[in-house]
Amino acid sequence: MKQVQFDSYQAMERAMVRKDLATARHHSRVAEVCLKIGSHLSLSSEELACLELSALLHDIGKLGVDDAILKSATSLSEGEWAQMRAHAEIGFRLLRGLEEFSGVAEIVHSHHERWDGAGYPRRLKGHEIPLLARVIAVGDTFDALVHGRPYRSAVSETEALQEIMRHRGTQFDPDVVDAFAAWLNPVGLPVSVHATPYGMV
Ligand SMILES: [Fe+2]
Prior knowledge:
The two termini are 27 Å apart. Helix content is 59%, strand content 0%. The protein has ten helices and no strands. Bound molecules: fe (ii) ion.
């Protein structure tokens, strides 16, 4: 990371730590997982650096979400979900205004898009979604599953792998899921994959 990027990143991450420590910790963990997936996708060192920075900032738009919604321990109403989903757009607007993050803004904007076009905020589909955003979608979901959320308990890494593989080719880019599985399940243990409805913010 260049010095000017690092200074700006640190300022934003300090704000995130004060706003919601759980999201700040999630950022760090997702970045680690994304780098593992990225190395299995044979990304270049430049792409890996952009992936790491994008993952470290992917939920920075949650700075603009009300604390009561962000930290709610109960299911959110439809209106509250709409506010929560706005974090992708808020993060994009924040980052695109900073020249040193111009390459990251579009990836942050797209991290909740789905391979099948049913994601948000723009309902991008397949390769319309930047590759690094497709990687973050998998890393983000894995972390949310194994660490849980205030309204949902954590599952094991194996269960998380199964859940992500169930959504290979629908929610997630199949090639990214294969790279993820190659990292987490290198000996190719069989996992059961029965489709269930699933959503993630
Ligand atoms: Fe997010």
